[in-house]
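Q: Hi! First time asking for a complex rather than a single chain. Here are the components, and I think there are three in total. Is that enough to go on?
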Amino acid sequence: MVMAKNKRSSVVKAGNARPKKNLWKPEEDLILKQYVETHGEGNWATVSKLSGKSCRLRWKNYLRPNIKRGDMSQDEKDLIIRMHKLLGNRWSLIAGRLPGRTDNEVKNYWNTHLNKNTSCCPAGGKRKGTSMTDYSNHDTNITKKKNKINTSKTSSTATTTADNPMIISSTVRSPKDTNSDHHHQHHEEPNDGPIFATTSTTEESCFYYDVDIESPRELHYYMPSCSSNFNPAFVFDDEPFIGYMDPFLLFD
DNA sequence: AATTAGATCAACCGCAAGGTT
DNA sequence: GAACCTTGCGGTTGATCTAAT
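A: Yes, that's all I need. Here is the structure of the assembled complex.
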């Protein structure tokens, strides 16, 4: 069943039973907005205590300036798909690549629009125990609580089904680990083995992102610049995606 | 017109990391 | 260094919508 895009207000309809969810009213939004304009961001615990609502979330996902609302453009969709293949469920990182989009929005968009369209996932939109849950378990478990990539050792492996013969395994290391992992600096693999692409960074915020891609075709899709000679740069929409230069990776 | 199934999205929840005391 | 507090993140839930029956 194809559903029309559903635009809903956050306002509870008058006459309805009191909702379990604490939806925001426009006047509450206004109050919060004025509060932040006056006092600045922060002190969310205090504000939330006073209001009884999650003000930080509301501000971050809805009220913050430059929040872009409305349909995703084709470019944004493509970027989300490709970033998700590369990064998994690291919504904040993906959202950081999409100006004006929040991680929550990207996550919702993925779960509702894109997840079901990917060949590696079971089709369907039923929520409970379905596509989102089942498919994402592999990288959900991986990425959960491990996405503080700058600060902690993170290892993730995203495998796929037979429909998508690509395997991405990413390993993010803290600078401490760099001594023992010299091969992460720059690496070339023989063509007959798994292609092992790596970006490296330096200084405090550095981390290493290793991508094992079994299919050279897939590698070329993600990294057109590294067909035979490896070049540690990804390209998104003609934009070089270089780990050590990209603020998206260093944004913390 | 009423009901049902499925889609959408705002908000909630719990955990982990970082910061402060 | 420990304890507490704050913030960020990702998974999940629930309300409400629309199209189909």
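A: The first strand of chain A starts at residue 154 and ends at 158. Let me know if you'd like any chain examined more closely.
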